[in-house]
Design brief:
mainly alpha, 1 helix
């Protein structure tokens, strides 16, 4: 069994807290990325729907 002493335990605790903080940051950044990707997909879908609507409108006008 290795004995770290108070200073060693403090360093280990600090290191563990830094690791936990980095993991939280990575999770937060991943969630932000998912949200940004979702927003981009939504914008693209809206744009595509608008283009399809315009094409349909033009096609219907040509039938009249």
């Amino acid at each position: 069994m290795t004995y770290f002493g108070d200073r060693g335990r403090d360093m280990l605790s600090m290191h563990e807290e830094l690791v936990r903080d980095r993991i939280r940051t990575l999770h937060r950044e991943a969630e932000e990325q998912r949200r940004a990707s979702g927003i981009l997909r939504l914008r693209r879908a809206r744009r595509d729907a608008e283009r399809a609507s315009i094409r349909l409108r033009h096609a219907l006008l040509r039938l009249v």
